[in-house]
Amino acid sequence: DQQVKQNSPSLSVQEGRISILNCDYTNSMFDYFLWYKKYPAEGPTFLISISSIKDKNEDGRFTVFLNKSAKHLSLHIVPSQPGDSAVYFCAASEVGSQGNLIFGKGTKLSVKP
Amino acid sequence: SQTIHQWPATLVQPVGSPLSLECTVEGTSNPNLYWYRQAAGRGLQLLFYSVGIGQISSEVPQNLSASRPQDRQFILSSKKLLLSDSGFYLCASRQGRLKAFFGQGTRLTVV
Question: Which residues does chain B have within 8 Å of residue A104's beta carbon, measured at their own beta carbons?
Fold first, then answer.
């Protein structure tokens, strides 16, 4: 049973517009959430994270929103750039879980010039 | 920041052959170490994690094993590879509640 779900396998956005990537989770014990970006044949690189005590965290063009009651988080990229084209993974970890990160299946973002 | 070294980058192995993938970590001590696999069309599946030397936990039943002979060394092994072991293997390191760092991955193709 998937604890972290990214229901959109792909997303296509025009350059300069907003990209919104969504993630849902089922485990109410998750208290820390991260977004990773992955290019083909490379390891994921960290983008941004958010603790469950917050509902928003912003870093440059990237903003993550957390809605605990809905068990939903989203990553907003504004403005989107062609270099943002990659697979984006949502990950979550639980208090006292040895730091294990549980990942979603990823969303492939394509930003068209 | 941490640097994760993984090798080889690509590997083609016949069914039934053994496997050894190595991962070493720089820039930290006593990290939690992880092996993930990304199979075609799937997300990142956690295979093993280790909180210290000689301590290995397995997340899924499988044909693979892991070992941690040194603090910053993590090895993924198999005695006999199966076709279903093909995938992209990633080593990761995390300290406490901080972000995890990933290696560049190994593309394993079992033929």
Answer: 43
